[in-house]
Design brief:
alpha/beta; FAD/NAD(P)-binding domain; Enolase-like, domain 1; 3 domains; seven-stranded mixed beta sheet; five-stranded parallel beta sheet; 22 strands; about 25% strand
Length: about 475
């Protein structure tokens, strides 16, 4: 006899597991079907978390070898132990996945290991690793299948020499050289890891700029800083071929606008051109769930075209971010329970965990100009921030964009040390529809890096005070 539930969630990533936990908290009988043996999805197992562990460790190594001397600290015998660094990363992942399993038990969520697919109205089929099938009956189905690496035509990823983000997190040795295809968040973060560990890193990007979608001024200054760190950029360039040689790889590239081809040799190629939704072979067509032209599930407040079938996270439109999936997860579970679920899609922060960090929330200047929205801006450099100077962390700036008429904050863009932590203040202010003056007149502790946000807000009305 089939197990019967109120909610069955297909996918155990940030969207799936948060939806399951919230549904359990609301008293719904819930099951979460995940193909991996561990919960957490791409983000926790082979994405956000392991990459941040390596970014942190590699930054400490670079600081010890290159920056501590200027602070009067002489470090001797500092060297890389890559196996231990990888082990520490795995221990972090293991602890967090076990934490999710504990929360499932605490909230009476049933974790089912296997590949889930919709088998009809109110039916979810689960196929385990041995091919054994079972069926779940449920009132509601939530699709939280996430995303996968977008392949590059003509380039075969083997996760050894030609790697995706997954392979780049587990290289057995530091390559002498690495070419990163794609200058987005993933490419820059993982390129930063291996550059700090000793690789020569070159980045090839089809567009004429890095970090597509971010504020143009932010991207321009970031490019300048990354070049000083040792990155080599080939912008406006497309890769047409990657050949495996006996002792390396040969890339064939040409200008995106057309022109003569050139070649480049390297030890490792990281393909980081983006991610695509996982929506095939999960039974969507059997119940009438509709996809858009790019393969994303069409939803209206997380409801699909099929009765009692919902979708959240990377398999739907919007930014492919774990925290966006988490917001949708809670809102979806609450909607299923009859509560007013809500997500403010205008206040979804983005972060790049390079050094310096880059973060933003809301509209860019380019978007405001295109929409013909009148705005004012204030900016403040970390070079003029007392804590930044004391810490020798002076790269970057903060920019606040506010409506020219009512002063409502429309966007905040940051680059500098610890801005991943500071962007939350900007997001909170925007959630309450604060004016730039609200931040400008809020007392911040001195000396702190966060004072740069207050100073940038002051700058909207022209009363910035240099420190």
């Amino acid at each position: 006899m089939a197990d019967t539930f109120d909610v069955v969630i297909i996918g155990g990533g940030p969207g799936g597991y948060n939806c399951a936990i919230r549904a359990g908290q609301l008293g719904l009988k819930t099951a979460c079907v995940e193909s991996r043996s561990t919960l957490g999805g791409t983000c926790l197992n082979v994405g956000c978390i392991p990459s941040k562990a390596l970014l942190h460790a590699s930054e400490l190594l670079e600081t010890a070898n290159s920056h501590m001397a200027e602070l009067g600290i002489k470090a001797k015998g500092v060297e890389l132990d890559l196996p231990q660094m990888m082990q520490a990363k795995e221990e972090t992942v293991d602890g967090l996945t076990k934490g999710i399993a504990f929360l499932f038990k605490k909230n009476k969520v049933k974790h089912i290991t296997g590949r889930g697919r919709i088998a009809g109205k109110g039916k979810v089929e689960v196929i385990d690793d041995e091919g054994k099938k079972s069926e779940l009956t449920t009132k509601h189905i939530v699709i939280a299948t996430g995303s996968e690496v977008t392949p590059l035509p003509g380039v075969e990823i083997d996760e050894k020499r030609i790697v995706s983000s997954t392979g780049a997190l587990s290289l057995g040795k530091v390559p002498k050289s690495m070419v990163v295809i794609g200058a987005g968040v993933i490419g820059l973060e993982l390129g930063s890891v291996w550059r700090r560990l000793g690789a020569e890193v070159k980045v090839v990007e089809f567009l004429p700029r890095i970090l597509p979608g971010s504020d143009g001024e932010l991207a321009k200054q970031a490019t300048r800083i990354f070049k000083k760190q040792g990155f080599e950029f080939h912008l406006g360039t497309k890769v047409t071929k990657v050949e495996k040689l006996k002792s390396g790889l040969k890339l064939t590239m040409e200008p995106a606008a057309g022109g003569d081809a050139i070649t480049m040799e390297t030890d490792v190629v990281l393909v980081a051109i983006g991610r695509r939704p996982v929506t095939s072979d999960i039974g969507l067509e059997d119940v009438g769930v509709k996809l858009d032209a790019r393969g994303f599930i069409e939803t209206d407040h997380w409801k699909t075209a099929a009765d009692n079938v919902w979708a959240i996270g990377d398999c739907t439109t919007g930014p492919m971010l774990a925290h966006k999936a988490e917001e949708e997860a809670v809102a979806c579970a609450e909607s299923i329970a009859g509560l007013p679920g809500h997500v403010n899609y205008d206040v979804i922060p983005g972060v790049v965990y390079t050094s310096p960090e880059i973060a933003w929330v809301g509209k860019t200047e380019e978007e405001l100009k295109a929409a013909k929205i009148p705005y004012k801006k204030g900016a403040f450099p970390f070079a003029a921030n007392s804590r930044g100077r004391a810490n020798h962390q002076t790269d970057g700036f903060i920019k606040v964009l506010a409506h020219a008429t009512n002063d409502e904050i429309l966007g905040v863009h940051m680059m500098g040390a610890q801005v991943s932590e500071m962007i939350g203040e900007a997001a909170l202010a925007m959630e309450f529809r604060a004016a730039s003056e609200d931040i400008a007149r809020t007392c911040h502790a001195h000396p702190t890096l966060s004072e740069a946000l207050r100073q940038a807000a002051m700058g909207v009305e022209g009363w910035t005070m240099q420190m």
